[in-house]
Specification:
Layout: H1 3-9, E1 17-23, E2 28-31, E3 37-44, E4 46-51, E5 54-60, E6 64-68, E7 73-76, E8 85-87, E9 93-94, E10 111-113, E11 120-127, H2 132-140, E12 144-147, H3 149-152, H4 156-163, H5 171-191, H6 200-203, H7 210-219, H8 227-234, H9 238-249, H10 253-268, H11 276-282, H12 288-299, H13 303-312
Parallel strand pairs: 1-10, 2-8
Antiparallel strand pairs: 1-11, 2-7, 3-6, 3-11, 4-5, 4-7, 6-12, 8-9
């Protein structure tokens, strides 16, 4: 498992919202659903994404855009077209004056729009990330990014377009995995671009010393790691590992491990069957008291309080 896979492995798409929109100009959607992460892919035609505090982005066939955060924005055939439809939380769609449009614009299996032969066909996938692991990924993303078909160089948009309208056993799981694949492919392509300013945990993947060290820590958080044992596994001296790790990651290896353990603990504690004792054991803490002390020192609340607040949210 590499770094991106590790960040996505827990809260992957599970019953994610997926929709194919068939649209004929003039059309304009105001997106106010406040989803943490949304992926938009153009199958046919073009679209403009307009933001309140940024330049508009044009999407053409094969383009993929990702928005991170809860800011509102618009998607339309032209920057001049006024919003005709409002997308609210829970994917409820209405006219600007509140008239419900869900049934009026339904066009069959996971399809919606104002024309069955729309010149623009757009796919939308919405993630509802809640895990702490996901927040590391979300924190690394710009509020918006877009790649054209040539940059993405992937058949996944067409594959997802053909699968989204199928109504077969297990199809939701198939669509979830395809959405994950398209997201990972887009992020991987984006982070490899100079303008992306990729986060340290992504840049570490290609480092011959730090990459293997990070993967060892991520894959085996319960191991009783020391600088010496980690350096031995990587095949370098303790001084070399400590210096190189801090240069690339911005923190020492054991600090990174402590943060990673607490990130995983925050997710595991939300599981109904989990206890502080079982989570402490799974993550290599000497006792539940050690986990509780580290958790409260770092996050300001106890693991029990964290679970109660998370489950009541």
């Amino acid at each position: 498992m590499d770094v991106i896979s590790g960040l996505l492995d827990g809260p992957r798409a599970q019953g994610a919202f997926l929709l194919r929109s068939l649209l004929e100009p003039p059309w304009s959607l105001r997106i106010q659903d406040e989803a943490p992460l949304t992926l938009v892919a153009l199958v046919r035609g073009h679209a403009w994404m307009m933001f309140d505090n940024a330049e508009p982005i044009r999407l053409d066939a094969g383009s993929v855009a990702i928005t991170a955060g809860t800011d509102h924005y618009s998607v339309a055939d032209s920057p001049e077209t006024k919003p005709q439809i409002i997308i609210h939380p829970g994917q409820r769609c209405t006219t600007p004056d509140g008239f419900d449009l869900h049934e009026a614009m339904s066009l069959g299996v996971r399809s919606w729009g104002n024309s069955r032969t729309g010149s623009t066909v757009m796919l939308t996938g919405t993630y509802q990330f809640e895990g702490e692991v996901s927040r590391r990924l979300l924190a690394a993303l710009p509020a918006r990014l877009a790649l054209d078909a040539a940059a993405l160089d992937s058949p996944l948009v067409e594959i997802l377009a053909s699968e989204i309208v199928r109504d077969a056993p297990g199809q939701p799981a198939v669509l979830d995995r395809l959405l994950d694949l398209l997201l990972i492919t887009t992020l991987r392509t984006w982070f490899n671009r100079p303008e992306a300013n990729a986060p340290a945990w992504y840049r570490s993947h290609g480092d011959p010393i730090v990459g293997p060290a990070v993967r060892l820590l991520q894959h085996n958080p319960s191991h009783a790691w020391t600088i010496a044992s980690l350096a031995s596994e990587v095949g370098v001296s303790r001084a070399t590992l400590a210096r190189r790790f801090s240069d690339v990651m911005g923190e020492p290896p054991m600090t990174y491990l402590s943060s990673w353990r607490l990130t995983l603990a925050a997710d595991l504690l939300k599981e109904p069957a989990a206890t502080v004792t079982s989570v402490a054991r799974a993550l290599g803490y000497a006792s539940p008291y050690a986990l509780s002390a580290a958790f409260k020192r770092t996050r300001g609340i106890s693991p029990i309080e964290h679970r109660r607040l998370s489950n009541s949210a």
